Amino acid sequence: MQKSSKPIKEHLQDFLDFCEVEKGLRKNTQENYKNYLIKFFYWLAESKNDLLLPHQLTADHIWTYRLYLSRTPSPATGKLLSKGTQNYYLIALRAFLGYFVAKDVLSLPPDKIALAKADRALKSVKFLTLDQVSKLLASIEPKDNITTRDRAILESFFSTGLRIAELVSLNLEQFNSLKEKRDMELGVIGKGGKPRVVYFSERAINFIKDYLKIRNDVSHANQKALFINFRDKKDDTNARLTPRSIERMVKKYALLSGVPIFTTPHTLRHSYATDLMNQGVDLRSIQEFLGHSNIATTQIYTHVTNKRLRDIHHQFHSDPDKT
Fold this sequence. Notes:
Elements: H1 12-21, H2 27-46, H3 59-71, H4 83-102, H5 130-138, H6 145-160, H7 164-168, E1 184-189, E2 195-200, H8 202-215, H9 243-257, H10 265-278, H11 283-290, H12 295-298, H13 302-316
Antiparallel strand pairs: 1-2
């Protein structure tokens, strides 16, 4: 281990480069780390420690910073940060210290930063029932290039549990061999560069095939993306649909079908996982289907099983006083 002569704050860009090249993190993750660390650097300056070197950082500094996070209202809301939000800042700082370890720079070990115990209230998951999913899908009658594309997109979301960024990234060449297939499994690169396999049902494949009859028109031959914006110029080679445009599209059909207004592409992912849970699929399998790195992330769906089992218990379990 070697001591660095640069103040902690001056290592930020090197850390972000490390996240991109060696850790393979996405741009938005890097940006989040940057924003969370800027608060730490601001605190260093406020506490007259802006020239602190990595090896001079102590557990006492960390404790004082944690008190600052806990007791300082957010400028945006005027409210104190929740335990979960405080943890985001601490996780970013741990990752920053992990960079020093990877580069043999003497500093406080990352495991010296313990996370706050988050509120024990279960995170609320918004999802659609199967009836609501059916209403949403049925609201799109494929009668032209746009409605045919939109139906294929929504069917794909519910069939696979894809994240919106994963669906946007699909390319036409991945579906070249679709003609003879009734269903399909496809390898995708998910969040954090993690690969997984997703499964398209026969129903979803049929709608994608209908879309491909339009999509394969010679006038769109230069388009690499699977799902494109037909309103763009036909010779434009970058007409890939954006996440924002897909979010607007889902919202439009949610309003049209009368399903809850909170419906988004991620709601369909939650609905996909909830349906698997209701069908008795084990949590580990659902973790693989969704591409979660941590099983704790998948456990938010156990609320569905818990409620279903409670209802069954109330309905069928005998009460000795009533026999």
